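TA notes, week 10

Several of you asked for a full example with nothing omitted. So below is the full record: structure tokens for the whole chain, then the designed sequence directly under it. When grading your own attempts, check the secondary structure regions first.
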């Protein structure tokens, strides 16, 4: 399934390595250290004790976490705890679009016990049938909402070796309402 999805998305081969390089580049732009959790992205996961992939088609990524995947939440929580600096502000996805990995990350972050900032999940906010105003109206009393705009010019000029993923820049250029 991963190769089929890579072809569907038009992102080529060796995607986990490319994603790690992109993540490291974005962290460098922000002046932060890069660390990668060992829990694989959902398209590379299998149900425990079987050869059955969690994701059999693209739409499965946006279904609720399987009950068999609940063991991942403490693993990700532990990774976050071990890698957070002593004093920090933690930012987690809201889970807009219900992408499994975003929901997993949010649930793990909520278990840390720190005050959380949340961000609207990009690109699912733009490409899905989601309305940020509705999400914020439902969430504003419960969550701190974090927004940070990076101009495309800044991102390009301040990252000679580290560039933002091209597909994200293209989508940002097409969505000026996201740049605040």
């Amino acid at each position: 399934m991963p190769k089929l999805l890579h072809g569907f998305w038009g992102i080529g081969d060796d995607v986990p390595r490319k994603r790690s390089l992109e993540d490291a580049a974005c962290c460098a732009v922000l002046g932060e250290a890069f660390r990668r959790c060992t829990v694989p992205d959902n398209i590379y996961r299998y149900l425990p004790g079987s050869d059955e992939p969690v994701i059999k088609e693209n739409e499965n990524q946006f279904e609720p976490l399987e009950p068999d995947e609940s063991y991942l939440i403490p693993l990700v929580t532990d990774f976050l705890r071990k890698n957070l600096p002593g004093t920090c502000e933690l930012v987690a996805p809201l889970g807009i679009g219900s992408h499994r990995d975003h929901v997993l990350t949010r649930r793990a972050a909520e278990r840390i016990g720190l005050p959380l900032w949340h961000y609207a999940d990009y690109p699912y906010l733009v490409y899905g049938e989601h309305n940020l105003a509705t999400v914020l109206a439902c969430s504003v009393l419960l969550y701190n909402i974090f927004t940070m705009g990076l101009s495309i010019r800044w991102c390009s000029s301040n990252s000679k070796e580290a560039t933002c993923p091209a597909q994200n820049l293209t989508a940002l250029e097409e969505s000026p309402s996201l740049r605040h």
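Helices lie at 2-9, 15-29, 72-83, 100-110, 124-127, 132-139, 152-157, 166-174. Use that as a sanity check on your answer.
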